[in-house]
Design goal:
Blueprint (H helix, E strand, L loop, with lengths): L2 H10 L3 E6 L2 E13 L2 E11 L14 E5 L4 E6 L18 E5 L3
Antiparallel strand pairs: 1-2, 1-5, 2-3, 2-6, 3-4
C-alpha cells in the first residue's frame, strides 16, 4: 500500500500515523489529505514524538503540521485516541485540492 493510501485509510478510520519526518519521530493524527499544486500533502495534528520546534504539548493549537507525503519515512498506522486542537475547523492552506478529510 502506498503512503498516500495508508494515510487516506487512517483518516477514514480515525487512526494515528507514526512516521519519521526530517529525522524526527512523529506521532500524528491526519486531518486533511490531497494536493497542493502537484504535491501530495497532508495536514496532521502532532500529539507525540519529537519536533524541531520543541516539545509537543498535547492540546496545543501549535501542533499542526503540513507535510508533503513523499518526505515521510517508515509510516505505520495505529489504533488509539484521536487527537486534534480546538481550532481544528480553522481555514487551512496546506491542501488546495482535498481528497479526504476527517469527519467530526
Amino acid at each position: 500500500m502506498s503512503n498516500y493510501d495508508l494515510i487516506k485509510s487512517a483518516i477514514l478510520n480515525k487512526q494515528q500515523i507514526f512516521a519519521i519526518y526530517k529525522g524526527f519521530r512523529r506521532e500524528m493524527c491526519p486531518h486533511i489529505l490531497g494536493w497542493k499544486g502537484s504535491k501530495q500533502q497532508c495536514l496532521f495534528y502532532q500529539f507525540g514524538g519529537e519536533s524541531s520546534s520543541g516539545a509537543i504539548v498535547l492540546g496545543s493549537d501549535k501542533n499542526w503540521r503540513c507535510i508533503p507525503i513523499d518526505t515521510l519515512e517508515n509510516i505505520t498506522v495505529h489504533d488509539g485516541d484521536w487527537y486534534t486542537a480546538r481550532n481544528h475547523n480553522r481555514s487551512q492552506t496546506c491542501v488546495d485540492q482535498i481528497d479526504v478529510e476527517v469527519s467530526f
